Amino acid sequence: GAYGSIPITVYPASNALVSGLNLVSLQRAPIGTTLTSYQVIPAIVANSNSTTTYMYKLDRPLQGWVSAIDDGGAVIGEDFNLVTGDGYFIQVNAALTWTYNGTQVTSAPAPLTTLQKGGSNVIGVPYNVTGGLTASDLINAADSRKIPDCTSVSKWNTATQAWVTFPGTIFNIDIGQGYVVTLGGIGTVNWTPPFGTVIPAPPQFQQ
Length: 207
Fold this sequence. Notes:
- The chain has two helices and 16 strands.
- The protein has 207 residues and is mostly beta strands.
């Protein structure tokens, strides 16, 4: 088969979720036009023992959270798009692996994401960055991979269900994870870390 008239190569991806709160990002680009919260939540519920499933997205301009919730088999709340470059909270009450299909990100989008200054943003990186990437790199004014005006970077520790923040603790920016970055200033800024390599591909198929 094909999407439209052009065959595409599809790569499975997965995120391990713990019981509790998880901060994740997409490792593959959605197939077609969109992947939405109203598609993800039923897929998680259908393939797990989680009886409570929530998804949260930060609305950057408004600096507020929007959510979608499983309500006994129906999804209520905001039907928002999931895109590469952004991060999302997923809350479940049973450990599981969320598996989805997408296409490989084979070059750095221009931009990867547009960030809101004077507030917080939730980000993710869907490819290996040249030279690797740490929380310190995102703040270092002399580093080409920096986020302009970035003042702090936080990750969610799923084991302790608590924040880890730099400045303070240096940690790697890993594929498939989400991170909260806080920026000073006013307006928006585009950010695209330099592309290194694609994520190693598991078995693939075409559709």
